[in-house]
Amino acid sequence: MVENGNFSKAYPMKGGDGFHSYSNNSSYQREVIDAVKELINEAIVEKLDINIHSLPNKTFKITDMGCSVGPNTFIAIQNIIEAVEKKYQTQFEYQVFFNDHVSNDFNTLFSSIPPNNNYYPMGLPGSFHGRLFPNASLHIMNSSYALQWLSQVPKEVLDKSSPAWNKGKICYTSAGDETLKAYTEQFGKDMDCFLDSRAKEVVPGGLLLLSFPGRLSETPHSQVYSNIAYDLLGSSLMEMAHKGIISEEKVDDFNIPVYFTSPQEVEEAVKRNGCFNIERVVCIPLKKSQSSNSTKAKAVSSHIRAGMESLLKEHFGDEFNLDQLFENFLQKLHENILPLQHGEASTVFLILKRKEVGR
Amino acid sequence: MVENGNFSKAYPMKGGDGFHSYSNNSSYQREVIDAVKELINEAIVEKLDINIHSLPNKTFKITDMGCSVGPNTFIAIQNIIEAVEKKYQTQFEYQVFFNDHVSNDFNTLFSSIPPNNNYYPMGLPGSFHGRLFPNASLHIMNSSYALQWLSQVPKEVLDKSSPAWNKGKICYTSAGDETLKAYTEQFGKDMDCFLDSRAKEVVPGGLLLLSFPGRLSETPHSQVYSNIAYDLLGSSLMEMAHKGIISEEKVDDFNIPVYFTSPQEVEEAVKRNGCFNIERVVCIPLKKSQSSNSTKAKAVSSHIRAGMESLLKEHFGDEFNLDQLFENFLQKLHENILPLQHGEASTVFLILKRKEVGR
Ligand SMILES: Nc1ncnc2c1ncn2[C@@H]1O[C@H](CSCC[C@H](N)C(=O)O)[C@@H](O)[C@H]1O
Ligand SMILES: Nc1ncnc2c1ncn2[C@@H]1O[C@H](CSCC[C@H](N)C(=O)O)[C@@H](O)[C@H]1O
């Protein structure tokens, strides 16, 4: 049986193309894609090392894992294809596999595939924490801004009898050390599953291109931009609990399965795995936006709503008033714009090359 | 640029899993899949002729073209995999490509992929009248009950100045010779496009397994079961036009892009193409149902509704009262149950083997 990572829970980005949809709230990720474009280009030209004469049917295979609904995934793929063409100066047939959870809105994704693409597009439903492809069948495997999603909230964090229990909070930011430790370990385990599968699927000399929303190794978790925002979202939820709109227990049970890694932690996972050479590690600091405080607060709020809406609905039920929550949250963002502005964030970007088998 | 058959219009089956959905109205197709199971088994054991030692990464690749939303496609794929395993008695990795129009409900399809499958599933959006895959990259290509869909209504049939103009009718059944000729030619052209693409995509020695809802070569079009039903649907529409509910012109402009082939016509297309050997042609007559007239009429009505709903909506607009149409249609089916019972239908099933290149 193919391990298709069924153990991994799915919280898809909001599909469709409405106001709160991921398509309309992914411009920050888009900046990241632009920032890594040149790095990817270089890596492909200098590091990719496959024997193109042995490619079955001259078919070059690329995947984007955690693709969501576009348009970013289409841009990422186009950048990769351009670099491959530049390097080999030859005509390949490209097969592109768009991967995300089964519950991702593939209908929206498929209907927005650029019409003049020069590849054969496929959708591949399933979790990247398990196997997705046959052995040694991909040449370049990309994942942008998806690996911060854990396969699950660490069990201890939900366990009342554990010191890691995260009462009254929704993320590990200002939680105790035990909670943070549980998150850190979960991220490590998830990376191990991810890298084990990818090591089997990518050809020797093929590349993994990974970008994470993360932090510098010296930045404490509590100073990470998104963590500050999540903490405020948590206090909005607690406020609703105190008003009796939702139960406090429900808030205790709610935790965001997201972790912001440092480059060092990913490097350690790569070393544990042993099948890849680390060709490049780059941290790209968040460009601080120059827009007004009010624009900023609104942007953070819609960005987080696009990512969290399905998670919140699943937990608090369909009747839960998301508009009310996000109004309160927006207010909190306004009030806390200063600490938020001091928040930091970095994109952690790695280029890994699959070692020759047996080395 | 990849020719992705954009010229082909899409009228997907009704998605989801509601009362009128394709999932709940495809039991007739299911019977056909069961009927051809043994034939497919034999063909794979006796005719499939690929060098399994040269399979890249021991990966065996199968596609089902025009898969709709399941469950039939999952059964068809499972039958094929079982036969391949029986033949080679060896462990392959299977990659399965589910193809349908971009507008197919892939979300429903993906969410119902059997959890204990032993293959890597992919969704492949695009028209099978154009290229879908890189050269020589598939081993078995299946299509069940999809190739009756033309890429378009033949142009002449919509042209008031043409002798093929199909005034007051929605299919070619009781239309003039010119209309029938236009449909026959369109089917021939579409088969040419289909076979040209497949000849490039399937490996030498690989198989095409094709089942069409069709007719025996000696059965006149007007005696084909579905054609009789379509003609009744047409008269229901005309009745609504006479009552002023829709315009007569709209009905004139509406034509069902479906054609029921004979084995002979498909064989001719295969010969024109020249890249395949015909290994087997079988006609499987429709089993006449033993249920009561009233059950029969209802079954025909919901079956046709599942297939035609999106086509009708597109043409007559979202406000069009489908319930009213199908009530009237059901009435007509009751009144005409005798001619309907004399109607004939056959599944035309072909097994084609890709010739060695250059032979
Ligand atoms: N285990 C998993 N397997 C596959 N996709 C996953 C996943 N965990 C999270 N994701 C997906 O990762 C996506 C993150 S959003 C990022 C989208 C895109 N790569 C961009 O750069 O804009 C979401 O669509 C989410 O469903
Ligand atoms: N040109 C084309 N390309 C791809 N799919 C097509 C097509 N024309 C029709 N179809 C699809 O063919 C399907 C026919 S319904 C048959 C479904 C399934 N094979 C079964 O046996 O039950 C529909 O889903 C329709 O969207």
What does this structure look like?
Chains A, B: One of its GO terms (molecular function) is S-adenosylmethionine-dependent methyltransferase activity. Chains A, B: One of its GO terms (biological process) is methylation. Chains A, B: Keywords: Magnesium, Metal-binding, Methyltransferase, Transferase. 2 copies of one chain form a homodimer. The two termini of chain A are 28 Å apart. Chain A has one domain: Rossmann fold. With 359 residues, chain A is an alpha/beta fold. Chain A has a 7-stranded mixed sheet with strand order 3-2-1-4-5-7-6, with helices on both faces. In chain A, helix 4 packs across helix 7, helix 5 packs across helix 9 and helix 8 packs antiparallel against helix 9. In chain A, strand 2, helix 3 and strand 3 form a beta-alpha-beta unit. Chain A is 41% helix and 17% strand. Chains A and B meet through strand 2, helix 3 and strand 3 of A and strand 2, helix 3 and strand 3 of B. Bound molecules: S-adenosyl-L-homocysteine (2 copies). One S-adenosyl-L-homocysteine (SAH) binds next to helix 2 and strand 2 of chain B.
